Amino acid sequence: MSKVRAEILDVDYPNTAAARIVINAPASKIFELLANPRAHASFDGSGSIKKSISGPVRLHQGAKFGMAMNIKVPYRITNTVVAFEENKKITWCHLMKWTWSYELHDLGNSTTQVTEIFDGHSIPAFSRWWLKKTGAVVRNPKSMAKSLVQLKALCEG
Fold it and tell me: Fewer Cβ atoms within 10 Å of its own Cβ: the N or the C terminal residue of the chain?
């Protein structure tokens, strides 16, 4: 049996990464996990999300949600949903201004292509410095691919 993998995509913008996977589940089922901040730690491939600490049960355009995180040290971050299309796309950002997006494309027969995108190409100078200093851009593609594999396992299991 071959190991399930997500495809890491080539991206032409600096400080940006993307990965894609096909999940044998309807977009609505996948989107329910993405729109539930309390579920994010269950499919986080980076291991940095510890738990949801504030926000609505289900995200929506403009919703704010706080997460307990740990990347070398524990911290808390508040995200804001900046794009929301039911069963198609959800994007959030925080004070550093980069965004995390999930785009869902219905392939028919209860199969969905999911693309995760980290976009930091037009962020402020301090945020660019921070990404470089922490090595996030180098780590992100592999972590995103792991997240998508875990999301697939949750949705197909």
Answer: N
> In this predicted model, what pLDDT tens digit does every residue of 1-48 receive, in sequence order?
568 999 999 998 889 999 999 999 999 999 999 999 999 999 999 999
For the full predicted model, state whether its pTM sits above 0.90.
yes
Helices (H) and strands (E) in the chain, counts: 4, 8
C-alpha–C-alpha distance, residues 91 and 29, integer Å: 17
Between CA 109 and CA 72 the distance in angstroms is 42
The 10 Å Cβ neighbour count of residue 157 is 6
- Say if CB 69 and CB 79 are below 8 A apart: no
- Superfamily (CATH) of domain 7-156: START domain (3.30.530.20)
Amino acid of residue 71: I
